[in-house]
Design goal:
HEAT repeat domain-containing protein; mainly alpha; ARM-type_fold; 1% strand; 3 domains; Leucine-rich Repeat Variant; 29 helices; 523 residues
Length: 523
């Protein structure tokens, strides 16, 4: 016992309110209205809180009192009632009052006191923790080992030392907290003198290796490196285990060292297994490594990667297949498409749409009729990229596709000059897809000047939805301001027809726009 009884009252009587407010802040709740069940369960919730959340809780607890006092003063200044539920007590309680509270509530009270702005109170709480050891006490000691006050930091280091001598295995439950503190300059002495020696102790070798199954990537990365450094596992075994890690950084680092750590036959075996790994970057880099070491499984891995679901491995496989074996990757994808719809054929369609040539038109065109809009879109992109001979017909068909993404891709192709949009094609899409008329209205800028005016006036002469009508009027105003300066031939739209269209649309045109259009149409 480091504090003699009876001790003066120094602990905050509102510690449970501070703790509850801090826990609520972690959940994004910043008011001061608590239900009784929250106050009762706060101490137990602290015991079960994940290690990674404890530093944020420490900060939230420290701020909760100042937020409470600020709100109270602000309400007093504005002469508004401040009504927290419950009202936080202002008094202090002596340490001996915790004897009857039970270990869980006593540890919670001391943890709250160790988060206070008052350095004397933080030091006092850490000394008192000697009589209530446990997970919360070690967490408080780890956090305060980075304290900005030297006496508090020395007391925290002494507490941590005694707790590690008593329950060293508990450190592995808080290893994520210990690692998160490692970047703090004031924490360096505690890390090198107390924490790291325990983590590297030979008697804890199995606990250290079990940390590679942690939910935290930071913990797993440290555990792999520490297991090799301490001899808990060989570098080869750690490398093989890390290759299966679900975090890309860890798996990628293991793959980068695999060539130097693994025997050739073991390396080839791991490279074969790489095709089943979840991270695309790892599958891609494994292909490059297999090519660099000339692995026996290279050709088999390339054949599989040609139908990888991700772009990166497919592109690497296509490049290596062409450079190493002199085979054209497009031929493999074309063969897959000719066999009909399947999982491999859909991947082949995705791949071919990125690098299609004019001769791929026969392979891509049948997919324009597929029930899946995504596959129709991929086929259309392939035809556009390959500048297929039948592209104008494909774009005309896609422009009235039921899926807006396919129709939008066709519009972008027309705007980019891959084919010329005609009034007949636009009018067909207008009639077949009324829900797309707002978007199709903007496509009139791709028509000849007089064709665009003829189309807009004809559309406005018929009853339209309010949004479509507003868009048509807006586009006509744009034509009057800017579009009239484009070059155009009256061969496609006679003045008589335009005047008749204008007369029919008169009821839906603003007076000023009608007069302006009337003067712009040649006589």
């Amino acid at each position: 016992m480091l504090i003699d009884f009876p001790s003066p009252a120094r602990l905050p009587a509102a510690w449970n309110c501070y703790l509850t407010a801090g826990l609520r802040a972690l959940r994004g709740q910043h008011d001061f209205v608590f239900v009784d069940s929250e106050l009762e369960s706060a101490a137990g919730e602290l015991q079960a809180l994940p290690a990674r959340a404890l530093p944020r809780l420490e900060e939230a607890i420290r701020k909760s009192r100042r937020r409470y006092d600020f709100q109270r003063q602000l309400c007093a200044y504005d002469r508004r009632p401040f009504q927290p539920v419950p009202v936080w007590p202002d008094g202090l309680v002596p340490l001996q009052a915790l004897q009857a509270a039970g270990p869980e509530r006593a540890q919670a009270c001391l943890f709250v006191a160790s988060c206070d702005y008052d350095g004397y109170l933080r030091e006092y709480a850490l000394r008192a923790f000697a009589d209530w050891p446990g997970r919360v006490a070690m967490a408080a000691a780890l956090i305060r080992c980075g304290d900005w006050v030297d006496p508090v930091r020395r007391v925290a280091e002494n507490l941590l030392d005694s707790l590690l001598q008593r329950e060293p295995e508990r450190l592995f439950d808080l290893i994520e907290l210990a690692l998160s503190m490692r970047g703090r300059e004031r924490y360096a002495d505690a890390w090198s003198a107390l924490v790291e020696p325990q983590l590297h102790a030979p008697r804890h070798a199995e606990r250290l290796w079990r940390a590679t199954a942690s939910d935290s990537p930071q913990v797993r990365e440290y555990a792999y490196a520490a297991a090799v450094a301490t001899g808990a596992r060989s570098a080869a075994d750690a490398c093989i285990a890390a290759l299966d890690d679900r975090h890309p950084r860890i798996a990628g680092a293991a793959l980068a060292q695999a060539q130097t750590l693994l025997a050739p036959d073991r390396l080839d075996r791991e490279l074969r297994l790489t095709r089943r790994r979840r991270v695309p970057a790892l599958r891609r880099d494994a292909l490059r490594l297999a090519a660099r070491v000339d692995a026996p499984s290279l050709r088999e891995s390339l054949d599989d990667a040609m139908f990888d679901r991700s772009t990166g491995p497919r592109r690497v496989a296509a490049y290596l297949l062409r450079e190493r074996f002199g085979e054209e990757p497009r031929r493999i994808w074309r063969d897959a498409l000719e066999k009909g719809d399947s999982a491999r054929a859909r991947i082949a369609l995705t791949a071919l749409s990125e690098c299609a040539l004019p001769e791929d038109e026969a392979s891509l065109s049948p997919w324009l009729s597929h029930a899946s809009s995504r596959l129709r879109l991929l086929a259309l992109r392939g035809l556009i990229r390959g500048a297929a001979i039948g592209l104008p017909a494909a774009l005309a068909r896609a422009l009235h596709d039921i899926d807006y993404r396919v129709a939008s891709e066709a519009l972008r192709a027309y705007a980019s000059g891959h084919a010329r949009l005609t009034a007949a094609v636009l009018r067909q899409a207008w009639e077949l897809r009324p829900p797309h008329r707002v978007r199709l209205t903007c496509a009139t800028t791709l028509l000849d000047k007089w064709q665009a005016l003829d189309f807009l006036l004809e559309a406005l002469s018929e009853p339209q939805a309010s949004q479509v009508e507003w868009e048509l009027v807006s586009e006509l105003r744009t034509w009057a301001n800017f579009g009239r300066y484009r070059f155009g031939s009256l061969e496609q739209a006679s003045p008589q027809t335009l005047r008749e269209r204008l007369r029919q649309a008169r009821a839906r045109l603003p007076d000023d726009l009608h007069r302006e259009l009337e003067t712009l149409i040649p006589r």
